[in-house]
Amino acid sequence: MNTPEFRSACAAALQGAAAKVPQLSAFLGLDGFVDEIIAVVDERQDARQYSRIPTISALAERIAAAAGRSTNVELVTTRTKLGGNGPIMANALAAFGVRVTYLGALGYPTLHPVFDEFARHAEVHTIADPGRTDALEFEDGKLLFGKMFPLAEVTWANIEKHGKRPLVEQHLGRASLVGFVNWTMLPYMSDIWEAMQKEICPKLTGPKRWMFFDLADPEKRPVSERQRALSLITSFQNHFECILGLNEKEAFEVGEVLGLTGYSHSRADLQALTAAIRQKVPVNTIVVHPTRHALACSGAAVDDVDGPFVAKPLITTGAGDHFNSGFVLGKLLGLSNAQSLLCGVSTSGFYVRTGQSPAVADIAGLMRDWPKA
């Protein structure tokens, strides 16, 4: 689903609800990275000009050809920016006008300079140094090389040691949205969730509010740990309306853990897999975002919305986090799953074209003036 009439109606609904955005609050964590966006050189013409290796498969062929010998691969850093699923998503929500509080690994004892601009738009709290990511970007995807050892300091004990437990209690009790992302890179995230469920969640009162999770490429974690994480996420549904966000690769990885196999990457099978995951992980919403479209399931039906695909994006690192911010914005504003998906794909579409996090007016404008390619 993605007709001009649907986009126009969604833009009108979004702008009609835009006055509510400054009243929304979000509490997110717990990671933090410094990202270097990198081009891989194919051929260098002179000191300033070069052509890029365009695809991951082309780089793979070059590396494979060097087996048994050696080769030189030149990397050019094109941009250094704040990174980590949490800071990128939080920064995008702040750009919409949501009041954001962030707790994570942003530099210790002082904030790393790459997060200074973020700290001007959000209330930030840091308990550890950030990890580092070398993000090699290509036309057909990206390769993320992470250095994550500082994130071992993100523990429940350190949250308490640095006096941040009252902050966590306060925001779990009243934020419009609570979000925990990048579980894969945070080795003690499940322990933190377990502590929250034992020590904080039983004291929560009032209506359920939204909670968002992004496992972030869980393939490298043992199956038993993935099963534990999914069980803990399901348990949070007792206290919050939970959303589990997955990209296409992650959907298949989660499906495998749940015993859901035999699905292809066809659109019909992705819809079936999305519905099957929600049956096994009975949270409010399962959302899956492949490159060209996005799907969401909150009941029997699966909504599936095309995005404004771009063959040669300006940037791809952070596109999924921007999708997540747009999707949860729609949910926070009371839009339907289909409309929230359109908010998500419009947010990521704007970002990969411009390298900037959009305002609400930007994504409404993109819906009305839909890119042709």
What is the end-to-end distance? 17 Å
Give the topology string: H per helix, E per strand: HEEEHEHEHEEEHHEHEHEHHEEEHHH
Biggest sheet overview: 9 strands, mixed
Look at the helices and sheets and give the structural class.
Answer: alpha/beta
Strand content: 15-25%
Query: What name does the CATH topology carry?
Result: UDP-N-acetylmuramoyl-L-alanine:D-glutamate ligase
List the uncertain runs.
Answer: none
Q: What value does the average pLDDT take?
A: 95
Q: Count of DSSP helices?
A: 13
- Inertia-based shape: globular
Give structural notes.
- By secondary structure, this protein is an alpha/beta fold.
- It has one domain: UDP-N-acetylmuramoyl-L-alanine:D-glutamate ligase (3-Layer(aba) Sandwich), CATH 3.40.1190.20.
- Helices cover 40% and strands 23% of the residues.
- The chain contains 13 helices and 14 strands.
- It has helices at residues 4-17, 56-65, 85-96, 116-121, 156-161, 165-174, 189-199, 223-236, 248-257, 267-280, 319-332, 337-354, 360-368, and strands at 25-29, 33-44, 50-52, 75-83, 99-104, 123-126, 131-138, 141-147, 177-181, 210-214, 241-247, 285-289, 293-297, 302-306.
- The protein has a nine-stranded mixed beta sheet with strand order 6-5-1-9-10-11-12-13-14, sandwiched between helices. Strands 2, 3, 4, 7 and 8 form a five-stranded mixed beta sheet that branches.
- Helix 3 crosses helix 11 (319-332), helix 11 packs antiparallel against helix 12 (337-354) and helix 12 (337-354) crosses helix 13.
- 44% of the residues are buried.
- The model has no long low-confidence stretch (mean pLDDT 95).
